[in-house]
Amino acid sequence: MAILKIARMGHPVLAEMCASVRDPSAPEIRRLIADMIETMGDANGAGLAAPQVHVPLRIVIFQAPDARSAAGLDETEAFDHTAPLTILINPLIEVLDASPEGGWEGCLSVPGLRGWVERPRHIRYSGLDVDGHRVQRSARGFHARVVQHECDHIDGVVYPQRMRDLSKLIFESEYRHWIEQQDAGQQAAQ
Ligand code: NI
Prior knowledge:
Blueprint: H1 27-43, E1 47-49, E2 59-64, H2 66-69, H3 75-81, E3 83-105, E4 113-128, E5 134-140, H4 141-153, E6 169-171, H5 172-189
The structure holds nickel (II) ion.
The site of nickel (II) ion has 5 residues, from helix 4.
């Protein structure tokens, strides 16, 4: 396994429409996915798409842990909000509720920045895992957001292209200072 170099916004590979994977269980695909998992862990990311490691194929990995998104939800709803480490090859997204939900996003290919992005709030997605088995789930909250963000990458789209208000493209340090602290204050006040 190896930690791979991450392409940054402006590299042409991030603007490509990626090709489908013909054989999900091919040894080179398994190796690539193992390296993507190691790279995402090293960079402390929630998701990673193959073009971000300079491979223009339709592969994404992501996770949506409980602590990040499901606090305070009942069990049925929480299920939609969380996902274990998931590998999706040739993914497809179906929008179940297109009404927009806004959230702050970051990207390993756009280091140091955060942006406010509105996306459909409820989706169903499917794809193949590394053994060629079909995965299908519905997703809301951070889970829905991370899947849509990663699947954008394999269509050559980086999150700032989804933004409608560029005044909400800010530095991570300012996000921590002004947004995260404010959120924490609001939670404490409730
Ligand atoms: Ni990204």
